[in-house]
């Protein structure tokens, strides 16, 4: 089905914002289409691009719970995410980027973890590379016993500001299920915080509503084999995420000296990761302290903070 129409209310919206990725978005749409065990959901595709090929593919599916909208002009990534929230008819919404994949039991698993006091779920996701594809199946690295036991522990945990101080709890929006009305109340994703608008909104959401981290990997976050991040974007990331953590320290309002120390450690590790993963050319001097020297200073910090 295409266009406004008379769309019924649903429990879930799988929203797919897309921009000129006609080939990749087909896989995203199919993964939303193939959800098992749940029928009370809609698939909402909001197109920010110029081509009509995605619309042709949607029509070919001949499905009564899939809807396509074309923006009159390019409103940017976060603008398109907000447009998805605005158009959603589901009580809960998950935004699936047009190069990522939902596992076939994603919504069924969400149903298992939702209850009257749960207003949001944050799942973990697999990273996949172009070389990980074989006969339409994803190759997932084997886990050792220690990692399996760790994943089984604390299956559902309420998220706090301290959790978001430690790191952004999601890879963009993949695997994140939130109430659409709550997102509207918070004003959606603010593009002024690019590229960390999701970090800001999700921390704010968990501060105002009951959201939980689910220690279970479900979905697939695509990393292109030749991916190279824009250096200017990485520079903003380095600065903005650091400022977000400093702001969260003020909101938490206690043990600031300990948190500032921890923030410096987090920032150093963050920059190292950006250098290793994206060849980030930073001007920031990284302190070469040996990890085991500083680890004693933060061991048990979470218990000490009582947050």
Summarize this structure briefly:
This protein is α/β, with parallel strands linked by helices. It contains 12 helices and 10 strands. The C terminus is likely disordered.
- The CATH topology assignment of the largest domain is Spore Coat Polysaccharide Biosynthesis Protein SpsA, Chain A
Q: Could you report the average pLDDT, rounded to the nearest whole number?
A: 84
Number of strands: 10
Count of individual helical segments:
12
Compute the CA-based radius of gyration.
20 Å
Structural class: alpha/beta
Largest sheet: 8 strands, mixed
- Outline: globular
- Provide the CATH superfamily of the largest domain: Spore Coat Polysaccharide Biosynthesis Protein SpsA, Chain A
Spatial gap, N to C terminus: 48 Å
Query: What is the percent of helical residues?
Result: 40-55%
Main-sheet strand order equals 3-2-1-4-9-5-10-8
Strand content: 15-25%
Order of H and E elements: EHEHEHEHEEEHEHEHHEHHHH
What is the level-2 CATH architecture name of the largest domain? Alpha-Beta Complex
CATH class type of the largest domain = Alpha Beta
Question: What are the defining features of this structure?
Answer:
two-stranded antiparallel ribbon; 307 residues; eight-stranded mixed sheet; 2 domains; globular; disordered C terminus; alpha/beta; Spore Coat Polysaccharide Biosynthesis Protein SpsA, Chain A
Could you explain how this protein is built, in words?
By secondary structure, the protein is α/β, with parallel strands linked by helices. The protein has two domains: 214 residues, Spore Coat Polysaccharide Biosynthesis Protein SpsA, Chain A, CATH 3.90.550; 74 residues, no CATH class. It is built from twelve helices and ten strands. The protein has an eight-stranded mixed β-sheet with strand order 3-2-1-4-9-5-10-8, with helices on both faces. It has a two-stranded antiparallel ribbon with strand order 6-7. Helix 1 packs parallel to helix 2 and helix 9 packs antiparallel against helix 10. The longest helix is centred in the C-terminal third of the chain and has 23 residues. The chain is globular and about 60 Å long. The protein starts with 9 loop residues before the first strand and ends with a helix. The C terminus is likely disordered.
């Amino acid at each position: 089905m295409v266009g406004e129409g008379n769309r019924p209310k649903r429990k879930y919206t799988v929203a797919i914002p897309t921009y000129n990725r006609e080939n990749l978005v087909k896989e995203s749409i199919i993964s939303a289409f193939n959800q098992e065990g749940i029928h009370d959901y809609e698939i909402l595709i909001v197109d920010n691009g110029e081509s009509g090929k995605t619309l042709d593919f949607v029509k070919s599916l001949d499905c009564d719970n899939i809807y396509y909208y074309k923006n009159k002009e390019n409103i940017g990534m976060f603008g398109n995410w907000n447009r998805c929230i605005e158009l959603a008819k589901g009580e809960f919404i998950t935004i699936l980027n047009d190069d990522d994949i939902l596992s076939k039991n994603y919504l069924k698993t969400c149903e298992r973890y939702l209850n009257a006091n749960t207003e949001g779920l944050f799942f973990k996701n697999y990273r996949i590379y172009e070389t990980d594809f074989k006969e339409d199946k994803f190759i997932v690295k084997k886990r050792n016993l220690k990692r399996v036991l760790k994943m089984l522990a604390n299956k559902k945990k309420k998220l706090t500001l301290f959790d978001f101080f430690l790191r952004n709890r999601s890879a963009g929006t993949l695997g994140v299920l939130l109430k659409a009305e709550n997102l509207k109340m918070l004003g959606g994703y603010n593009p002024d915080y690019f590229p960390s608008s999701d970090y800001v909104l999700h921390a704010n959401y968990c501060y105002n509503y009951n959201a939980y981290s689910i220690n279970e990997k479900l979905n697939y976050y695509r990393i292109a084999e030749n991916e190279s991040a824009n250096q200017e974007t990485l520079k903003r990331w380095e600065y903005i995420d650091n400022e977000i953590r400093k702001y969260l320290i003020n909101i938490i309002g206690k043990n600031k000296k300990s948190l500032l120390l921890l923030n410096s450690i987090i920032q150093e590790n963050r920059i190292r990761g950006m250098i290793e993963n994206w060849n980030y050319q930073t001007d920031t001097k990284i302190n070469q302290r040996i990890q085991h020297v500083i680890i004693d200073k933060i061991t048990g910090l979470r218990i000490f903070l009582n947050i």
